[in-house]
Design brief:
Layout: E1 2-6, H1 10-20, E2 26-31, H2 34-44, E3 48-52, H3 60-70, E4 76-80, H4 85-93, E5 98-101, H5 106-145, H6 154-168, H7 184-192
Parallel strand pairs: 1-2, 1-3, 3-4, 4-5
Length: about 190
């Protein structure tokens, strides 16, 4: 599990890093400023970001918004020594996965990171599902535009009426026979359509 810690206090960053020793969580980047955190989040692609609210330059809330725009698949956990209910609500509304107050305890941190990873997994699954659905919709629209079953002959009308009978009968299996090149695949596509 790749972790980015953004906190202006080196003691806090070192403390969190030492808390992670012996766990499956690896601190891949540390940032003392908000702008450094944005750069590192972009280059290191962490699984979870631990972000302090009070930092020089860009504050944690602004940074949270930037990180959400950059990749809302990466959960951000807000950490602060000065938390109140207003801050918690604001952070959650901006998209934070959770909110921790200092001093941070290992069990609490493990639970929050685990929850953040479940959120990340769900977001990635949703994105894949949306992409799959979009791809299917695009293929369906493309297929509708490429109906190859054309013709006005008596035989064509007869085949169309057989297709209509088969479709309306809700047949589970339809056997299409004919010589090579007679259009069996075209008829099969028309039935599916």
């Amino acid at each position: 599990i790749r972790l980015l810690i953004a906190d202006d206090h080196e003691v806090v960053r070192c403390g969190l890093k030492s808390l992670m020793g012996g766990t499956e969580i690896k601190v891949v980047a540390e940032a003392a400023t908000g702008s450094a955190a944005v750069r590192l989040a972009q280059s290191q692609k962490p699984d979870v970001v631990l972000l302090d609210i009070r930092m020089p330059g860009i504050d944690g809330f602004t940074l949270l918004e930037r990180l959400q725009k950059q990749s809302n698949d990466t959960p951000v956990v807000i950490i602060t020594g000065h938390g109140n209910m207003e801050m918690v609500i604001r952070a959650l509304r901006l998209g934070a996965a959770d909110f921790l107050t200092k001093p941070i305890r290992l069990l609490e941190l493990d639970a929050v990171v685990e929850k953040a990873l479940r959120i990340r997994s769900l977001k990635l699954g949703q994105r894949r599902l949306r992409e799959t659905i979009s791809g299917m919709q695009a293929a369906e629209q493309q297929r509708r535009g490429k109906r190859n079953f054309v013709g006005t002959s008596e035989q064509t009308h007869e085949v169309r009426s057989l297709i209509k009978i088969a479709v309306e009968a809700n047949c589970e299996t339809i056997l299409i026979t004919g010589d090579t090149g007679t259009g069996k695949e075209v008829v099969a596509r028309e039935i599916h359509f």
